[in-house]
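I had to read the description of the data format several times before I understood it. For illustration, here is how one protein appears when written out as sequence plus structure tokens:
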Amino acid sequence: MSHLFTRNLTFQSNDLGRNAAIVLTFDADMEGLYEDFFPVVWKVSMFGKTGLCKAHATYTSQLAFSKPQVVDGNIIGAESCVKIDVSEKTTLTEADDVYHFSPPQAGASGVLQAMNNTGDVQDIAVCFMSEGDSIPTPVLYFNDVRDGSHVTAQFAPVLRAYVTSACQETEIIRNAIEAPAIWSHDLAALAKNTTWNLERDPASGKYAIVKA
């Protein structure tokens, strides 16, 4: 089992000058992104024009696969899930309309794999799970996984932040966010607890996130 870690992120602003929505998602450049699979919005936090505003986000490196429940382009839950580590594989089956992932076994090095043996096309999501969570947090969404085929994911927790009002939490992002990313970090390389300041240049209107 790989070493698990937790990252507690705090984002804050003070008299930002304009209301802003910060979107957090794991959409770093990956082969097949927006073709074979799609990122999912993790967090959307509102920061006010005036005063002190804070938002918190906690990531845990325990990964999982889920059979997601999707409504109107948003992942609202999971019909089944299983914790999994890098270099492990699992198989999704179905019996009497109940879905089940098999206990993980050793698989291909450096990746996560989930085989679809349900007899039908399925959606599968890569997620993370914090201690005590009953439902995993989806980060990557694979749709139309054919029966007898498998999902292979090589996930690194590179988190990006955007200022945009075009996304909502748990939304499946079908196309790249048009706004530029204002912050990008591999969470594995950060300290357990970090605080970041959201700032806005009043002259240019551009936003930045800098270490507090």
Remarks:
- The chain is about 0% helix and 55% strand.
